[in-house]
Each structure stands twice: as C-alpha cells, then as structure tokens.
Fold this protein.
Amino acid sequence: MHKLLRNLVRRLPLQFRVLYNQFLLRVIDLESLSIQADVPRFLGQFAGVLIMFSLAQALGLLIHPPMSPESMQSLLDSVLQRMIATTMLITGLIAVVSWDNIFPDRRDVMVLFPLPVRPRTVLFAKLAAAGAVAGLGVLVLNFPVSLAVALLIGGFARSLFVFLAYWFTLAGSAALLLASVLTVQGFTALLLPRRAFIRLSAVLQLAAFALLIAVYFLEPSLLTPAAFQAPANRLLLASSPQFWFFALFHQLIGQLPPGCAWLAGRAWAGLGIVLAGALASLLLCYLRTMRKTVEEPDLLPAARGSHWTLPFGSRLQTAILQFSVRSLLRSRQHRVALAFYLGIGAALTLLILKQDGPLIAVPHPLLPGFLFATFTMMTFAVVGLRSVYALPISLTANWVLRTTQLAPPELYIAATRRSLLLFAALPVWLASALYGLTYRPLYQVAEHLVILALLAVILADLNLIGFYKVPFTCSYLPGKSNVQVRFWAFVIVFVPLATLGAMEELRAFPHLLQTAALIAFLAAAAACLRVFNRRRFQPAVLYFEELPEEILTTLHLVTIPPPISVPSPRP
C-alpha cells in the first residue's frame, strides 16, 4: 500500500509536488517561528486533543449501561449530530485561519507567474494543500467514532457500508464549510476594489470566526422524530447544515425518519451550489485579480490629518501600549488568534448564562451562572491576549527595539502588565458590570465586581511569570507549551475550581464578614504575587529569540587514569 501511494505521488507533475509542499508549510507563518521550531510536535499536540475528544465519544458509545432501543437510538443521534457539528467547526476554523492562503497574493504573482508555471497548477496545489490540512483534522477527529458507529448501527454484516456512509457524510459537511468560506471570499474579491476588499476581508474573517463558534455552542440538538416534524423547529432545520447532513446519513443507510427527505435534499443541493460557487470564484480570481494584486498595495495609506496619541502613563508605557494596540489592529493573524480565545470564552459565557434563563430579562436574583460566566470570560481574555503577545509581528524589525532599549527591563514588563489589564481585563469587567445591572441586589453585584477585578490582577501577574519579552517582538517556538496539558488542565482543574469559587462566593454574599474575608484574601494574594513578580523582573533580561532549553546528556563513564610508568633503574 505504501509503495502504491508512493508510485501515485511520483506520477504527479514535479511542479505540482514542489508547490504543494511549499503551500502546505504556509498554514503556519514560518517567518514568525523560531529557528529551532518543532512544527510537527506543535501540530501533533492539536491532533492529540482531537483524538482524545473522539476517543471519549467512541467509548461513550461502546461502554454504556443497558438501555432500551429508543434510548440507544437517541444516544447515537446525539453523538452523530455532535460529531457533524464539531467537524464543521474544525473545518471552518481551518478555512478561517488560512483565509488568504488559497487565493493568489503578491508573492505568488511576483515569483511564480514569471516562471513557466501555469496558473491552474498553482491553483490545484493550493487547493490540495488546504484540503490536506482540513482532511487531516477531519480524519483524526472522526476515525474512532466512525468505527463505533459502524459497529453499533450496521453490526458485522453492514458495518463497512455504514462506515463508508459515515465518512461520505462527514466529508460532505467539511467540504460544505470549506467551499462556503471560499465562495464568500472569492466573490467579495471579485466585486470590490482591492483596497475595499482588504478592509472588508478582516471584518469578514472575524465575523465568520464568531459565527462558527456561536453556532457550535448555541445550536440545540433534536433527537426525536417528533422534534424533526414539529412546525416550530422547521426554521431551525431549514437553516442548519448540521441537520441536513444528519438526514443525509440516515438516507444513505436507509433509515431516514419520516418527513425528513427535504432535509437530505438540502444537503445535496447546498453541497452542489457551494462547490460550484467556490470553483467559479477561484477560477475568476486567478484570471481577473492578478493585475489588481500587483498594481494596488496590500498596506493601505494612513489617513491624513493630525494624529493624537492617547497617553497611558509614561512615554515608555505609552509606546508599548500603542505598539500593542496597532499590532492587533493591523495584523490578521494576531486578530484571528485573539478572536479564537475570545470566541470560545464568549460562547461558553452565553451558554452558561442561557442555562440561568433569558439573557435579557427583568431584574432577577444573582445566580451562580453569572459568577462562573464572568470568571470564564475574564480568564479567556487575559490568557488569550498573553498568548497573542508571544507571536511576533515582524522579526526583521526587532533591531529597532534592541537598539533603543535604554530603560530597565522591568519597565517594559510593567508596561506589558498594564496592557493586559487595559485591553483584556477592563473590557470584560465593564461588560460584566453592564450586564450585572439585570441582577438584584445591586450591592452583591458590586461585591462580585470587586472580586472580579482582583481576579483579573492575579491572572495578569500569573501570566507574566517568565514572560521577559516586549509584546509581538520575540520569535515563536511551537511545541514548547503542551496544548494537551493546557486543554485538560482547563477541563479538569479550572472548571471545578471556578464552579466551587462561584458557589462559595454566592454563599458568602449574605454575610458581610465572610465577603470581606474573601476580598481580603484575594487582595493579599494579588499583593504577594505582585511583590514576587517585581523581584523577579529586576534582574530579568529581555530576549527576542525563543530557544529550547539546553539539556546535556552524559553517559556516566568513569575516566580511568593511565598507569604511571616508573622508569627502570640504570644498571
């Protein structure tokens, strides 16, 4: 099998193979990585998270207590809908992250097209690279679940047929999301001028990201035939591709619920429309937008007029904070990375608040969901901005910061701390205060806001331990931080602690002394952490290149001294 695949790959044109390898590496910006970056380990960590998620779903299907056929069918439908939604989310996130990688950019036009390389070869190589990344994510996410579903639904007789039907359904749902993103981006590039497209592209990218996260966490599940036939759910079914492909899977295996044929028809029609739209937009972009890509600049000219800089403290603090703000506003990659954290945090917050009741309602008593939701959003905001700070904006410009480093390093790190509090913690705190007006009594909401502010200070200081960098200036070393450990630490450690903290806080609110003791404890923790960080910052040295720790391996060999030669006496 391996030899057969190798022979098939060798039969592909050499130009296609070379371009495919290069475009596959563009999924990660190589210019922002450290010299000794371990990219395979970095990607393997994300794959490990997806595998663990899929294994958990598969074990939940295979290892379960005895249940009735109706309950078993409900469990299978729930897992199938969840896997379709997760597959569409992963594919959509890959498409959003690689927003500009499939369409031609200035580098492609200036380097490749003067060479004897056909535009269709470049197009097919880019499509193959994007499809390979998305296909790898879909494969890793669904393989254990596909085996469990095939055994439980088809048995040993029809397991292969159900297995193929499952993979056709999941591949179709992934192709629908990927082609939809390409269609929207392609026709936007065709209809708008180049400068307008550049301005709108960033907004569309963030909007698509927010839409994917919100739909995944907020969309309900329908598990009974009665729910699919209810007139109240018809609008939800008609507008949700998740249910289209759920019906398509049951149509393929011959178990389509009554009255759901129109849903499977929507899956076929939607897939055909978006595939045709994506192909047409890509062909037209490669034929018509080449000249606009070369003639019009990617960087828009600055607005004319006087510029006033908002002061954030000293000149150094103002410079660091202004540099951080403008880097986030101008860099697409950093906006997407920050939107990833904020989108997950906002979706979890809305999901938690939705469990307490309507999001906009008359004043009601303070509930644990509001406390837990604000803790979650604050954590995601601070940790997300700190993670984005570790990604460089332009390594070739680091010499400017190195040659102008006249102040002690502790002042640079203090400015970074202030930026975390202003740009991550303060917006979440203000949003929590605004939404907290719907709860009563208000003095308890004010006490919670004090606790939330202290939590923000503690999170900012915790995230700055060992961070001796200027934001956006140090090369990135992927694989150094274990993504799997962080993911499961959030699930196993943070969620129980945040839940316990919200319950204890709510229990202490009626008692003034208990509330004061809780606030005093958090204030003391914040002060101790602040003193600890200030002592560590004083001898710190700013660094601009992320390097792995040097590990010396010894063989524990014992050195035997040579024998001492004694000269023989002369006769």
